[in-house]
Amino acid sequence: MIDSSYAGHVYLAGEYTDMRKSIDGLAVLVQHAFELDPFSPAIFVFCNRQRDKIKLLAWDECGFWLHYRRLERGRFQWPSLQEGETLTIRRRELRWLLDGLSLSQRHAHAEVRARTII
Predict the structure, then answer these.
(1) For the residues 83-99, what does the mean pLDDT come to?
(2) Residue extents of the structural domains in the chain
């Protein structure tokens, strides 16, 4: 998967995406639907209507990465969004989504932002 060197945001597409789209088609969606730069340090996530396929698009210095995941059983817990809406999530939430979990995990440990040792 895309490594931790991506310090940018993670954006979820609010509308379901035609999974026949490849890199260029998804980059155009990022520009027009998200109104964002597909060359920015970010991960753009797209899901199909049946919620069993996901594509991740990211730029990496000299080219695009396109990751595709198809579930053989089950569905992704894709959040309900308004048409045209884009949701920004954290990388941790992306891992939850890819693992089949909801973006709101009540039992997850709270994120710690401490930078000193006591």
Answers:
(1) 86
(2) 10-98
